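pinned: reference chain
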Amino acid sequence: MATYELFSPVERQSFIQIPETMDERVLARYYLLSPQDLVEVNRHRGRVNRLGFAVLLSYLRFPGRAWEQGEIVPPFVLEYLASQLRLSPRHLLEYARERPNTRREHLEELYILYNFQAFTTQHYQELSNWLLVIGLSTDNSLVLMQALIEELRHRQIVLPAFYQLEKLVWEVKKDSETQLFSLLTAGLSRQQQQKLDDLVQSPAQLSARKALEAKPEQGPKPEDTLNNVQDKRQSDLAWLRRPVGKNSPASFNKLAERIEFIRELKLDPNITKKIHHNRLLQLAREGSRSTAGHLSELEAPRRHAILVAFVLDWSERLTDQALEMHINLVGQLFNKSERKQASYLHNSGKAFNEKVLFYAQVGKAVIEAKAQDGDPYEAIEAVMEWPRFVASVEEAEKLARPKDFDYLDLMASRYSWLRQYSKKLLDVFEFKAAPASQSLKEALDLLKELNTDNSRKVPQDAPRSFIKPRWEKHVFPKEGVIDRRFYEMCILAELRNGLRSGDLWVSSSHQFRAFEEYLIGLEEWSEIQKSGKLALAISLNFKDYIEERAVLLNQKLLEVEQLISKGLLPDLTIKDNEFHLAALTKAVPDEAEALKEKAYDLLPRIKITDMLLEIEALTGFSRHFTHQQTTEVARDKLALLTAILADGLNLGLTKMAESCPGMTYGRLAWAADWHLREETYRKALAELVNFQHHLPFAAHYGEGKTSSSDGQRFKKSGHKEPTAQVNLKYGTEPGVMIYTHLSDQYVPFYVKVISTTARQAPYVIDGLLYHESELKIEEHYTDTHGFTEQIFGAANILGFRFAPRIKDIGDKRLYSFSSMEAYPNLKGLFATT
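pinned: its structure tokens
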């Protein structure tokens, strides 16, 4: 029935037909006849019947259905089967030609011999229940159908007519959706449901409803509406999703208002633990992209479920953004104070120099007077009159700063700036701490209590063990006195450090949550240990592992020592126990550059749009850009590809629509909003990477086993994007970093947008683990920014060889397991044993 249609004709055929090509390994997996198979095949009389029987058996196994009358067997499959039987493929043309019942009799025989089953109503119900579990994790029709067909093959149930399978998948999608909505909305009260509905109502609609509900003589009360804090021209949903602007106390307070607004809904965050993360994220994204008008038209269960998923997910995102903003604001405070100190020293440089020259003259005169037994006071007055000398000393006192002067002295003037948001920070978030940071947690609680009581005096028994020596002189200016300003600034600065290190966390956050929540649960870990399925490339016994690494390190040290002794490392020089590596020289000869230019001249000049269409026709990558709600492939392929091009060129949808005759902004916006997502881009990229990887010419570049990664900075138009940060290394304009993993076949297989202020090293492992291509990376290269000691350990545990190019390697201090006496040339690199 048309109601159950989920797939295009081409997609339907892809599920039930043998692929046009197969590599040798896949061919053997499906069509290699076992010794027992050969026995059963050879029981039949005649070469024609034996080959026909083998073909019927092979089709029942894969693709899992009966070989249809008149269906042409792919030549490579037929030749593979015939070669095993030492027969000619031409014999199949005569199969069942003389006796039509032969095919039916052979099928009946195969059903009995190999326990194949016909698809029944009972199977339909059993498989519906089985597939529902998968349906609760994804509603992707392609994934569900693939899983269903694989299970049918596993159970040796012969595939029925495709419309039956399509109907089963359709019903499972509906059932899983109903169950998903029920899980998300089961605990909602009528009041919570009304508040969720209010999110998608316009201010005018809300006012009208409130007026009807209020008593005529009283009218609507301002406190009855949740949106009394934001712009009345938009819905609460639009207000929640609106960017707050650049990092500032005012922007932080706007974020805090949104978080408090969401908390007024009193949704249970634990409800998300009952839902698979993929489905929850899908609903949350739908809520973040849909307009308020669109959501208001949905049926109540679906609307409420989408809004619950969105609100809970958005609450975490806002929390992360707020805490990240605090980290950046404190960083700004330090930077401004440090620059103020540097500016003061710079502006006072001339005066400092004049005073130094003057006192050098005075000192020289006094020294000469002492050497000649003269009067030192007369010597000073010979340089400058005494009143002027006294005045100069007073000027020097004004210029001079304390011996231990640092820029923290200048932070006191910024205290009021911090106070613009610090109270809200402590009111909105509940911080938890590891034992090492418990003193800081107590200080945060005390500061919150002081804010509530409007108390300015810090009690003498206030927590203080978290205070670093650098802060002590400011926090404790005199015995028995605690400076409230510096005490609070110290707490906020240490809060920043605690959040970044993981010693402090917030339970309602995703990025700043407890470290234990990133780990496998104890029950799951116990099951993994029992099953032995922990896929690590090292021994799980620490003693065995460390002994193995010690032997390997000593072996490599000995190899390098011998190479140095024999002078076989010409790029390495050692002077005064310091190592110096020669700069890398260009490996490509100049002639190759000229050849490259000639090769480029031979390429045809085509439009980038034509090239994109050609690549899509070759690879079919557009099928991965499924609709956010329906998971259907984009029907307006031209708009989809144009929107992708707009992203790739960073041109924007408006300018792209203006540049493309016949294309409208609405068509591009629809394609971008519903089909372009991080996960769809990732799958499409994997499709392109796999296609290029299988091209024979790609092997000339490499095997696809090594890779490298690096970041590129791109400017942003403003601070609205949370990831757009200022890194003074690149200038004062905000931007983002695009971190890319590139294989040795020169194809980018993983791309991630990160903050320009973040170190690149943590994202190295992400790219190696979470790319979805078929590349089997074994060795990875980075520059210094992609290197930390921890990455070496993580890469080794996961089975990757990590080979960073580290700047100033000679300045690094290494450690060995044993004495370095056996490696005298390497002693300068090692600090100790």
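why pinned: The longest helix spans residues 300-347. The chain is about 55% helix and 5% strand.
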